[in-house]
Amino acid sequence: MGQAMPAPAIKICGIASPEALDAVIAARADYAGFVFFPPSPRHVSLEVAAALAARSADRVSRVGLFVDADDATIAKAIKAGRLNVLQLHGKESPERAAQLRAAFSLPVWKALPVATREDVTRAKDYAGAVDMVLFDAKTPKGTLPGGMGVVFDWSLLGGENLPLAWGLAGGLAADNVGEAVRITRAPLVDTSSGVESAPGVKDAARIAAFCAAVRAA
Questions:
Q1: What region, left, alpha or beta, does residue 97 occupy, with left being phi > 0 and alpha being psi -120 to 50 degrees?
Q2: Residue 87: closest CA among 48, 18, 143, 40
Q3: Is 36:13 a contact under the CB 8 Å cutoff?
Q4: DSSP 8-class letter at 139
Q5: pLDDT tens-place string over residues 51-107
Q6: Residues paired with residue 86 on neighbouring β-strands, in sequence order
Q7: Left if phi > 0, otherwise alpha if psi is -120 to 50, otherwise beta: which for 68?
């Protein structure tokens, strides 16, 4: 028997209400994601982010999700949401990611859409520029860049020796995350639509079930 892998870290993204935040904390997730992207049904205003940050205190790490945002937008969100991590979900280059990391002295994660093995290999471009890459499913053209419940072929991550930390996103829910963790050995898993009863509406029971499934994998 090989040594048991530690349970992956868990991020629940798209937290926009006190009830959702409380559910994330109760389920002992590691990260709560706040979306600062107005087209998303999970977008939070600076006021809401500030209230959620105050409510969460130090019970969960806060990740701010941005899509090709400018420095001023990010600075305001960091202050309001007391962010611990910046997650870039647009077309940000390694250079842009490194610039933000230096400017704000916070860890930077970069979401990368995956449909082919080449998409996985592309993560190497971000080595040294970001603290983690998040492999997410490629969403259909003309749709939002995430939170669509789309899954990619997890076997693409098998045997890939990446020079940087990574996590797994894209269509994860309580009923498939165990298999995803077993196939990929992901050190972090991220879900948003997979724990919702409707777009943007988090479900406490689904959040609890997701976290339990990750720990049981």
A1: alpha
A2: 40
A3: no
A4: P
A5: 999 999 999 999 999 999 999 999 999 999 999 999 999 999 999 999 999 999 999
A6: 64, 108
A7: left
Q: What is the pLDDT of residues 12-52, one digit of tens each?
A: 999 999 999 999 999 999 999 999 999 999 999 999 999 99
Phi-psi region of 18 (alpha: psi -120 to 50; beta: other; left: phi over 0): alpha
| Sequence-distant (≥ 6) Cβ neighbours of residue 35 within 8 angstroms | 13, 14, 16, 42, 43, 44, 65, 147
Strand runs (DSSP E) across the chain, as ranges?
9-12, 31-35, 61-66, 85-88, 108-114, 132-137, 165-168, 188-191, 196-198, 201-202
**Could you tell me which residues come within 8 angstroms of residue 175 by beta carbon, excluding any fewer than 6 positions away?**
213
Residue 138 is given by DSSP the state P
Structure tokens at 68: 């090709």
First to last CA, the chain: 16
- Torsion angles phi and psi, residue 27, rounded to 5: -85, 0
Domains assigned to the chain: 9-216 (3.20.20.70)
Amino acid 159: pLDDT: 58
Pairing relation of β-strands 85-88 and 61-66?
parallel
CB 33 within 8 A of CB 65: yes
Residue 17: strand, helix, or coil: coil
